[in-house]
Design goal:
The structure holds 2 protein chains of 2 kinds. Chain A is α/β, with parallel strands linked by helices. Chain A has a single domain, classed as Alpha/Beta hydrolase fold, catalytic domain (Rossmann fold, 3-Layer(aba) Sandwich), CATH 3.40.50.1820. In chain A, helix 3 packs across helix 4. Helices cover about 35% and strands about 35% of the residues of chain B. Classes of the chains: A alpha/beta, B alpha+beta.
Chain lengths: ~250, ~110
């Protein structure tokens, strides 16, 4: 079921440490209660495609919030803020988890919320979404990891004070169902890393489903990139919607 | 892939940004997803002034091929400039005259 009617706006939410920041929020209009989704943006930041993806989820019946994980570096345009965050080595994992918790609380406080909340992330946001499900299992009812890189860390130099632990080492903390979407031509995560991630989840007895797409690499949902693969993206999105509807009601 | 890898180059110079000219002392250079260029990955350069807080930037996002071509173009421009300026330096005594000639002008 789709919802042509929706509202979308920038809103204020309380993130990690009680800090107040901006988020992009889109929700279907009409009667009834709607499940919520926290959408975690990729490294470049809170860009146009992230807002498009937020509205796409709302179109399919999910009240979706995309917290601006770099809001503490503002004010300014999202691209300039993203550049400053990149130069500073990114944001801390702990802060991202706190911001996601705050975004989930925002969703549950809305009058149209059904109380269920999932998390989805793309690229570095996929890694963040995986981590969020590990660290905040009580707040999230479903996880979608879209080609999250560095869930498995093969180069120890990728670990530092801001990202001290490989998310895969925290995977036992995940209590919700997991959907993974990956391109077989991706280099991060590559096929071997996706296979090893799956092996860990299988060993831990997690409820997971992975979809791997031939002819697709990294970020193949993003229509503004040459990596876009229309057929695979359409199928991947349909898997996301079905998964969230099944587990979030 | 989304990476956090940034190479820094120390610079001396200026750049023209949205608020006019500013001095720059740093180039943050990376190869990752661009914000604007319709490419999967782009060579990004943010020219900033860390000494002034680094809040403003002049940014470019270039394809890998054009970034490599730009490196060669910069080298060529510097080389041809060096040649031209060396010739100018060698020609200077003729142009400005001897000390005696110069003194006679004043």
């Amino acid at each position: 079921m789709s919802y042509q009617g929706m509202l979308a706006d920038t809103v204020k939410f309380r993130g990690d440490n009680g800090d107040t920041g901006e988020a992009y929020y889109a929700w279907p209009t009409g009667a009834g209660k709607f499940p919520g989704v926290v959408l975690i943006h990729h490294m470049p930041g809170w860009d146009e495609w992230i807002c498009e993806a937020t509205r796409k989820l709302a179109h399919h019946g999910f009240a979706t919030i995309a917290p601006h994980l770099y809001f503490r570096e503002g004010p300014g345009s999202p691209d300039d803020i993203g550049a400053r965050v990149r130069a500073a080595g990114g944001v801390t994992d702990e802060q991202v988890v706190g911001d996601a918790r705050g975004a989930a609380a925002y969703l549950r406080a809305q009058p149209h919320a059904n109380g269920k909340v999932g998390v989805i992330g793309y690229c570095s946001g996929g890694r963040h979404a995986f981590l969020i499900a590990c660290k905040a299992p009580a707040e999230f009812d479903a996880l979608v990891d879209c080609w999250g890189g560095n869930v498995i860390v093969d180069d120890p130099k990728a670990l530092n004070a801001k990202r001290p632990v490989a998310p895969i080492d925290l995977a036992d903390g995940i209590k919700c169902p997991i959907l993974g979407i990956f391109g077989n031509d991706d280099e991060n995560p590559n096929k071997d890393q996706v296979n090893r991630t799956e092996a860990v989840l299988k060993k831990l007895g997690k409820n997971y489903t992975f979809h791997r797409y031939d002819g697709a690499g990294h970020a193949f949902f993003n229509a503004s990139r040459v990596a876009y693969r229309a057929e695979q993206a359409a199928d991947g999105w349909s898997k996301v919607f079905a998964f969230f509807h099944k587990h979030l009601g | 892939m989304c990476s956090y890898i940034v190479e820094k180059a120390r610079l001396v110079g200026s750049a023209k940004g949205p608020n006019g000219w500013m001095r720059v002392d740093t180039a943050n250079v990376y190869f990752d997803h661009p914000f604007h260029a319709p490419l999967d990955h782009a060579l990004g350069i943010d020219f900033i002034c860390e000494a002034d807080g680094g809040r403003e930037r002049v940014a470019v996002e270039l394809s890998r091929e054009s970034a490599l071509a730009l490196i060669e173009t910069i080298k060529a421009a510097l080389a041809s400039g060096d040649v031209a300026h060396t010739k100018a330096v060698e020609a200077r005594p003729t142009l400005v005259g001897t000390q005696t000639e110069m003194a006679s002008l004043f």
